[in-house]
Specification:
The protein is mostly helical. It has one domain: Formate dehydrogenase/DMSO reductase domain (Formate dehydrogenase/DMSO reductase fold, Up-down Bundle), CATH 1.20.1630.10. Helices cover about 70% and strands about 0% of the residues. It has a two-stranded antiparallel ribbon with strand order 1-2. β1 and β2 form a beta hairpin. α5 crosses α7, α5 runs antiparallel to α9 and α12 packs across α14. The radius of gyration is 23 Å and the shape is globular.
Length: about 425
């Protein structure tokens, strides 16, 4: 393909129609359209729900739908889809995408410093994939915050708020990653490792500061069992992110590099790293449940979440993958394990977030668990299934991820194997 050279960077001269209209892009567009329809649904739920009027109140004052409409009229809707669900599928997806993306970037930068050649040859593609995941996570949280909240964030800024901490964090981190991708594409060997070290440090800072930002964003000035009593919670996010990241890297390798001469070597590196981090995560989970709040642990181990916990998280994230990759074998088994951990890690994030909702507050006032509005009866278990709009927006975020990666690959050949 014909190329042009700008600042040492080779850019493919690809026709606009071919760039924007190919099979992969069409898949991305379908997913993104689902996401935009989800945004429409959520906006309707937040701002245009039917409210009560005097006529309806007089005709059928005991109608449950009318009572709900009256509550909506009085209390309205807040930053989430509804007041009853302070943490939502938006947060699940945001945390999964951000931590998985930064995990991929961290692991690739570490491989560069450790001179793992097969990862170095494919580093540009993996870095781009990680960055695409980060942007997908930011898309999710942007739809959660909605336009009005973001507008007032700038009109009436509170610089101690979580979003104002997030902006400088990602405005530094993302350019560093882009610069590393530029160095990899242009084969600037002497600078790649130096920037890789900076990215390692920044990735750790991102994970730690992100934990604090989530506390700010999600109103954690009140104690939540899951966040305040789970041992070394930031470490859990990092370890589980590495497991999810390696799963995604395994799937990506099978899709992009299956014809690579060093394909088995690449999969073997991923297998060994995956085996290590699955073992660490399993050890962490065992120790954590000896200390975590007993009421939350009961919900996970024996309560309504038990099937998702054991069947969706423990089985998929740890048990099946461990058995598949314990010994070196066919690449196919590692890919199956990768698919399992990618799905299982998502279930783990879901359980973490919705488990935090289910048993959310400490008994600060000695009157039972806190209520979500003044008419509710206090109880220690709260769960509302995700709204369809949320599900569609999550689907749309995967479209964003695919679009960003495919666009950069078509223009810059990031998936090309490079020797350095």
């Amino acid at each position: 393909m014909e190329k042009c050279l700008i600042c040492g960077l080779e850019i493919n001269k690809i026709p606009l129609f071919k760039l924007l209209f190919n099979k992969t892009m069409f898949v991305a567009y379908i997913l993104i359209l689902a996401g935009f329809f989800g945004i429409y649904e959520v906006i309707g739920e937040r701002y245009f729900s039917v409210v009560a009027n005097a006529h309806a109140s007089g005709i059928d004052p005991t109608n449950p739908a009318l009572i709900e409409a009256m509550k909506n009229a009085v209390f309205g809707h807040v930053g989430e889809v509804t007041r009853e669900v302070p943490w939502t599928l938006f947060i699940v997806n945001y945390m999964y995408m951000i931590y998985t993306g930064s995990g991929i970037i961290f692991l690739v930068a570490l491989a560069e410093l450790l001179n793992i050649k097969v990862i170095a040859k494919t580093a540009a593609a993996f870095m781009t994939l990680g960055l695409a995941f980060v942007f997908a996570g930011l898309f999710t949280i942007a739809t959660d915050l909605n336009i009005l909240n973001m507008l007032w964030m700038f009109k009436d800024p509170n610089f101690g708020a979580g979003m104002w901490l997030m902006l400088p964090l990602y405005s530094i981190y993302i350019p560093f990653v882009l610069f590393e991708i530029y160095l990899l594409i242009t084969n600037k060997k002497e600078l790649v490792k130096k920037v890789s070290f900076a990215i390692l440090v920044l990735s750790i800072v991102v994970d730690i500061v992100e934990f604090y930002i989530q506390a700010k964003l999600f109103s954690m000035n009140t104690s939540r069992h899951l966040w305040t009593e789970f041992p070394i919670l930031t470490l859990y996010f990092i370890i589980s992110a590495f497991v999810a990241s390696l799963g995604v890297m395994g799937i990506f390798s099978a899709l992009i590099y299956r014809n690579l001469p060093n394909y088995h070597e690449l999969i073997e590196v991923i297998r060994k790293a995956l085996l290590f981090f699955i073992s660490v995560l399993a050890l962490y989970e065992i120790i954590a449940y000896l200390y975590v709040d007993k009421e939350w642990a009961f919900l996970m181990l024996f309560g309504p979440f038990k099937y998702a916990f054991f069947g969706g998280y423990i089985l998929l994230t740890m048990t099946i993958p461990f058995l598949l990759i314990f010994k070196e074998s066919k690449n196919t088994l590692t890919i199956i394990a990768s698919v399992c951990v990618a799905i299982g890690a998502y279930v783990g994030r879901y359980l973490f977030v919705y488990g935090g909702n289910a048993n959310p507050m400490t008994n600060r006032f000695g009157v039972g668990f806190e209520k979500y509005d003044i008419y509710d009866i206090s109880n220690s278990y709260n769960y509302v299934a995700p709204h369809m709009g949320e599900i569609l927006i999550v689907i749309g975020s995967f479209g964003i991820m695919i679009f960003i990666y495919k666009f950069l690959d078509e223009v810059f050949d990031v998936s090309k194997v490079r020797e350095h």
